[in-house]
Design brief:
The structure is a homodimer. By secondary structure, the first copy, chain A, is mainly α. The first copy, chain A, has 15 helices and two strands. In chain A, helix 8 runs antiparallel to helix 9. At the A-B interface, helix 2, helix 6, helix 7 and helix 8 of A face helix 2, helix 6, helix 7 and helix 8 of B.
Chain lengths: 296, 296
């Protein structure tokens, strides 16, 4: 069977597992006060790919079959991701009306509700880690590392520099800073948490992180290329907007051809790195190819 | 000596201890990207009363002298408080230009920077708990409870309902919901964390919580009264604004005289409750009187 078909089946199954956990830990949408509960669930279940939790689960399954202990951690990473998208879309930052093929949170519920809904998702992410069936020392480590990776030395720094760079000509160093922090860092930590949760040996952990840092960049480069080439219908968000806003993108800094080549080379390097773990890394290799060739 | 003078001296000393911890755990203001680092420190050191961390420290000192193990936890609560003020002041919510006697964060740094600076303070709060010198089980408990109290079932719910109620005539139930969640809850958890950190006996913990829930409401009632009576210069924020915005306040729902009486009665009840802990609760009793009679 086509390896991509197999992968998509696996992704779909794990997506559903994550959705069950998200549904379990998010309050009902009819709870009081209603608007914010509706907003929370609207953005959480707006059809995301669940790439980050999928990575956590794949890394965990390099070592262990039963995903139950790690799924809340995977869901926590997705919550932080959704939080960052909602705040990014606010008029305070990108002012984007569409996300994942639907109206963005603030476009439906208003700025104040969207702001607070995202805040509560972020807060919920830290709470949900405490419910994972892992030992306390690991919970504390996950809380600390998730905070570091999503905070002022990670995701937030990337978003901040993204704002500052708008309309300016950015250099390679700035571009790398933005995307290492904003995208690659969270993708990497998703894999790292899966591996740490399964008590991966240190040497293998560093292989997994090498793979993660490379596919994280590929993910962003392909995102930037799709923004130029893709159609709004497939991507589910406003396309061509990066260029219009003068955003710091790989094609803008390296050119389209060079960006494509970078994505290709990084994918090969990621696959080579993870291959050292043998047959059990097959899904991660197929995933790397999928992230390179995806059209949405 | 005047008990208030003694109390103010103690508050000032503990404020300084909290400031040292905040300074230690927040990144330098000249770090990259600069704007957000400046914004973070601007709001954190804009002259807050540090009431919440002070409560954590007083509750802890009912049992133990050396505050070092609990001070990061106290600082974490202050970070969450500052986060909530910055987001509250944004145009998305209250659109307030002044806070603590200075221009509010977004008025100085812009909406996007203020939004992200507050996000990173919130995230940092969870991180800093992991550095406290307490056992892992307690760190996990604090992360979970801080998330619960500051999230969609606590502080955020209070803020949300505060927005929804603007310009409407609110009933007593709604008013209580808002302020139990928005103010009293965080004040209560500040005390609770101090007591839990010092391994307070369950029976005494419930006395401390009874005291906390009452002074939490007193704090809010007095805030509402000062908004009507106080001068902007003393309070350091725009006064008379609650009424202008049609905010849900105690004087609006109960009238000024009844609100004053409520604050007075709750203070007496709080003092009676905490008196059962004997002489060591003296500072908490003086503090209750101080919160009732404060003019700013």
């Amino acid at each position: 069977m086509d390896p991509f078909v197999l992968l998509k089946k696996d992704m779909k199954e794990k997506q559903e597992q994550v959705n069950i956990i998200l549904d379990r830990y998010l309050p009902r949408k009819d709870e009081y006060p209603k608007e914010i509960h509706k907003a929370l669930r609207y953005s959480t279940f707006a059809g995301g790919k669940r790439l980050r939790p999928y990575l956590t689960m794949l890394a965990y399954q390099l070592y262990k079959d039963n995903l139950d202990p790690i799924t809340p951690v995977a869901a926590a990473i997705e919550m932080v991701h959704t939080f960052s998208l909602i705040h990014d879309d606010l008029p305070d930052i990108d002012d984007d009306e569409y996300r994942r093929g639907k109206k963005s949170c603030h476009a439906v519920f208003g700025d104040g509700v969207a702001l607070l809904a995202a805040d509560s998702l972020l807060i919920n992410a830290f709470e949900i880690i405490t419910y994972a069936e892992i030992d306390d020392a690991l919970k504390v480590q996950f809380v600390r590392e998730l905070a570091q990776e999503s905070g002022i030395k990670g995701l937030i720094a990337g978003q901040m520099l993204d704002i500052e760079s708008e309309g300016k000509k950015v250099d390679k160093k700035t571009l790398n800073f933005i995307h290492n922090n904003k995208t690659a860092g969270m993708i990497n930590i998703a894999l790292r948490f899966g591996a740490l949760g399964a008590k991966a040996p240190a040497k293998e952990l560093s292989v997994i992180e090498e793979y993660g840092s490379k596919i994280g960049l590929v993910f962003q480069i392909v995102d930037d290329l799709l923004d130029i080439e893709g159609s709004s219908a497939k991507l589910g968000k406003t396309t061509g907007k990066d260029e219009a806003q003068g955003k710091a993108t790989f094609p803008a800094v390296y050119g389209v051809e060079e960006s494509r080549k970078m994505a290709h080379d990084l994918t090969e390097q990621a696959k080579t790195a993870i291959s050292t773990l043998g047959d059990r890394s097959l899904k991660l290799r197929i995933l790397a190819d999928h992230l390179l060739s995806r059209k949405s």
